[in-house]
Amino acid sequence: MGSKSGLRPRTSVPMAYSEIAVLTVLPKVEEQIAKDRGLAEGGVGGKQLDCGLLAGRSSVGRGHGICNPYSLSMSELTEQFGDIDIYLFDQLLRGRIRPGMRILDAGCGGGRNLVYFRREGYDVWGVDEIPALAGWEQFRVAKVEKMPFPSADFDVVLSSAVLHFARSIAHFDAMLNEMWRVLKPGGLLFCRLASSIGMPHLAVGRTVLPDGSERFLVDAAMLLERTAALGGELEDPLKTTVVHEMRCMTTWVARKM
Q1: Residues 223, 173: contact at Cβ < 8 Å?
Q2: Which residues is 194 bridged to in the sheet?
Q3: Contact, 68 vs 55, CB < 8 A?
Q4: Which residues have C-beta within 8 Å of that of residue 176, sequence separation ≥ 6?
Q5: pLDDT (tens digit, 9 = 90+) per residue, 75-128?
Q6: With bands split at pLDDT 50, 70 and 90, how would you rate the model's confidence at 252?
Q7: What CA–CA distance (Å, rounded) separates 146 from 167?
Q8: pLDDT (tens digit, 9 = 90+) per residue, 149-194?
Q9: CA 183, CA 233: separation in Å to the nearest integer?
């Protein structure tokens, strides 16, 4: 693994809408809706396209676009996207996760972040120690630190609320290094994890939080150091949500260089 110093986030990447306001992402949605409507009017191969609940079909296959969120009820949104993490949804809206990419959810649990990808025909896989998705042919029962996939196998690796269950720094690094191993060069690592960012009085490592839960916490320095040591680069600035002074959740998105 290579090493970098002076790591800086990419300045050309816009902030996630959930950090500032929904209005910052609505122009992107409007742009996509306009594209979807254009495809629907022109059709593909002489055929009209369905721009209903699952809008934006094209010659690249299912999942080309995002449907018009203004026209959907809450039940329809849930049906299409499930209980998807809002920061993962942001990555989807910005086109960083596209049809044709091979995706792994490392520590997928019951698959709450996989609803959209599975129904839209993405090449998506899930791994977890608990066989909640045992009936799905692209699910594997395995530990995140020892996954049954070859190196450089996936374009995107997702880790949502997994790394903060590390038992120690060694366990944290084992899971992180394994996810990085199966990620292709140029691939995207998306992580949501508990941190002490925003509550600096909390210690890094296994810590009992004010809400009574115990988590493995990281800080910004640790995430930046790990990104550099892996030879990666931040795709977004680190973003942290402080939940009523009870816990902090950080979004860490890195590109494998």
Answers
A1: no
A2: 249
A3: yes
A4: 163, 226, 230
A5: 888 888 999 999 999 999 999 999 999 999 999 999 999 999 999 999 999 999
A6: very high
A7: 15
A8: 999 999 999 999 999 999 999 999 999 999 999 999 999 999 999 9
A9: 14
What is residue 172's predicted lDDT score, i.e. its pLDDT?
98
DSSP-derived secondary structure for the chain: ----SS----TTSPPPGGGS-GGGTHHHHHHHHHHHHHHHHH-BTTB----SSS---BTTBTT-S---GGG--HHHHHHHH-S--HHHHHHHHTTSS-TT-EEEEET-TTTTTTHHHHHTT-EEEEEESS-TTTTSTTEEE-BTTB-SS-TT-EEEEEEES-GGG-SSHHHHHHHHHHHHHHEEEEEEEEEEEEB-TT-TTSPSEEEE-TTS-EEEEB-HHHHHHHHHHTTEEESS--EEEEETTTEEEEEEEEEE-
Q: How far apart are CA 103 and CA 188, in angstroms?
A: 10
In the beta sheet, which residues pair with residue 208?
A: 214
Q: What is the structure's pLDDT at 192? A: 98
- How long a stretch of residues is the chain? 257
Instruction: Look at residue 38 and tell me whether its pLDDT is greater than 60.
Output: no
The structural domains of the chain, ordered by start, are: 78-256 (3.40.50.150)
Paired tokens of 152: 């450089």
Contact 162, 144 (CB under 8 A): yes
Residue type, 182: V
Higher per-residue pLDDT: 201 or 20? 201
